[in-house]
Amino acid sequence: MTGHERAGAFAAALPGASLTSSFGQLTVDVPADAWLDALRRARDDFRLGYFDWLSAYEDTDSVLVVVCHLVALEPVEHLLVRTRVDSEPPSLPSAVSVFRGADWHEREAAEMFGLTFTGHPAPGPLLLPAGFEGHPLRKGFVLAARVARPWPGAKEPGESGSAVRRRRALPPGVPAPGRWGPADPDGGQP
């Protein structure tokens, strides 16, 4: 049985799952309530016993996508198992009971994206300092360091001292002047 046939059988065994292929990478999309069952079946029934990584990305402002890369070692086959989490706050069952290596990856995704992995054995902070507010890999997170420090060098036309002047472009993730920071109590911006 080829890898594509095995992935198709895996997707067919899960209610609500679908199989896609992009650039030779097979991906099975599963509903969030079937996340743990999908990982367990991949490991037990389809010999995808090597956990490589787990991460997330923000698809829209309210939908997070969690992706897990699994590998079968003989013969070598790769599969992405992906689910969408669209509740606020986003929550998904922890995969640590299925793959012990998911521990660190889930803690990272929790800090960076604000995901809650229910049943995680040690959900404490991993990368960010104590008291850090926000989730740095979410689209709405303002990159405050770029506001505090000027953008380095003359990168735009007109910044080199020539007669042609142009409005200085802001670095990505930095709101317009006067639009950054918490709103004041009177309802306006600081």
In short:
By secondary structure, this protein is an alpha/beta fold.
Structure description:
The structure is a single chain. The chain is an alpha/beta fold. The protein has helices at 3-12, 35-44, 102-113, 144-148, and strands spanning 18-22, 25-29, 50-58, 64-73, 76-85, 91-93, 116-118. The strands form two sheets. The protein has a five-stranded mixed beta sheet with strand order 1-2-5-4-3. It is elongated. The chain starts with a helix and ends in a 42-residue tail after the last helix.
Q: What does the radius of gyration come to?
A: 22 Å
Instruction: List the uncertain runs.
Output: none
Overall spatial form: elongated
Q: Give average pLDDT, whole number.
A: 84
Contiguous helical run count = 4
Helix percent reads 10-25%
DSSP strand count? 7
List keywords for this structure.
4 helices; alpha/beta; 190 residues; five-stranded mixed sheet; 7 strands
